[in-house]
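User: Predict structure, ligand heme C.
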Amino acid sequence: MKRYISLLAIPLFAFASCAGGGTTAGAGKGIGADSMEAKLANAKPIDIRMMADPYLSDAEVAELMKAMQNSAPDTMEASLERGKKIYHDPTLGNGNAGQSCASCHEGGGSIGGAATTEVIKPGGFVFRPKLSIPTLKGAAVSFPKPRGPRRGFMVNLPAMNNMCISAFNKGQWIDQNTQASVDLANYISSFSKGKKWKPGAKKILPAGPVAGAM
Ligand code: HEC
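Assistant: Predicted complex:
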C-alpha cells in the first residue's frame, strides 16, 4: 500500500509544480516538496557532492561521477585475487628487502622462528626487537588490538600490515584509503574464515614462543 502511494506521489508533485502551486501540501504522509520522491525527481547530477568530499572541485566531482557510472561491479573473488598478488609481491611499497609477506607468513601460516627489526628512538638510540613470527590463520579476528613493545597503541589490521611492510619488507606504508590496502586486508581476513571475532587477542605462535624473542 505504501508503495502504491509513493508511485502516485511523483505525478502529483509534478502536476503541482507545473501548475505553479508553490507548496505541495500533499495528499498524505511522504508526499510533498520534502518527500524523497520529490527530491529524487528534482536531483541534479551535482547532488552527488553530498557523498563526496566537500572540498572537491566541480571538475573532480564530474570525474568521480564518470568513474562511478562506468565502473564494473567489484567482486570478493577479484579483491582476494588482487590481495594475494600484493601478499606475494617482494617490491610492495617499493620495499628493498627482497621479501614478500609470504616469505615469513608462508601460505598464511608462519615459517617459525623470529625476525629482527630496527627501531630508531628519539635521541638516536637504536632498538632491535626480535619478534616471533605468528601465523596469520586466525589473526584478522584479533584486531583491533594494542601493539608495540609495551602494547602502547591500538591498531587495526591495515595498520598492522603496514607495520610489517615497513619493518620487514622495508617498504613504504600503503595509504589505508586505497584499494590495495583493502584488498590486502581482505586477503589476510580470508585466513580467518569462520573464526569468532576476538578483538585484542595476542598473536598466535603455532610452534610456541621463540627463546629471547618477544
Ligand atoms: C621478516 C618476516 C616478516 C615479513 C616479511 C612479514 N611479516 Fe608480518 N609479522 C612478522 C612478525 C615477527 C610479526 C609479529 C610482530 C609483533 O609481534 O609485533 C608479524 C605480525 C603480523 C601480523 C599480526 C598478527 C597478529 O596476530 O597479531 C599481521 C597481520 C602480519 N604480520 C601481516 C603481514 C603482511 C601483510 C606482510 C606483508 C606485507 C607481512 N606480515 C610480512 C614477520 C613478518
